Amino acid sequence: MSAKFFLTIEEGPETGKKYFFDKGIIVIGRSDENDLTLEDDSVSGKHAKITFENRELFLQDIGSTNDTYYNGESLQKRGPAMLQDGGKFKLGDVVLRYTAFVKLSLFIIKGSEIGKEFPLEANEEDIRIGRTAKDNDIFFTNQSVSGKHAKITFKNGEFLLEDIGSKNGTYHKGEKERLQKGEKRPLQKGDEFALGYGTGEVVFRVEQRADFQPMSDKTVAYPCHEEKQPVILIISVGVILLIAILLIYICK
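RE: above sequence
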């Protein structure tokens, strides 16, 4: 199995550079044979590795000269450490930050079907948006939307919005200038974009995928023994009422 995540260089050569991975095991070091090569003399040829096990990512030193540190703790002494989102680790003099990949969805916030969710799949398949069902993955009957209006592609860990020659334009983050045909804009959590304009426009917001069940929606089951006392009380009252009715009938 593989995991999607990012590593960003916080300190060292190419500070600020961000790498996207979709693998079950990655090896980090100075050698070109690694999945991530760090050109720094303080980093060993094969320095550390990240493995995906039991739905978690673990960082492990693999016999480096200058050790691997996570939260200031030596991994040569303590062994593998489970990575937490935003966690930083040090290989020699190079500091890397781990960021989890967040699953995103499009939510309609203006237009027909407000609130409807469209999950964004992180694969090589384009997500096409337009007015015709046969040509698009997301489609509307709204006349402001072109038959083939826009598409979203996934590349290097980013979702990219692109207008594909629409009549009424695609607008990113409320900008007045429409995207040029073929122009690509990265989509991030909280971004909004519109297809068309005016009263007929359709507006989407990018948010974290809503694929979990809140605790408040779960049914609470109570033990049976807690219900025995009220049941017995109800039966007792019923028997007393029945006896009273019989006595009244006999007395008549």
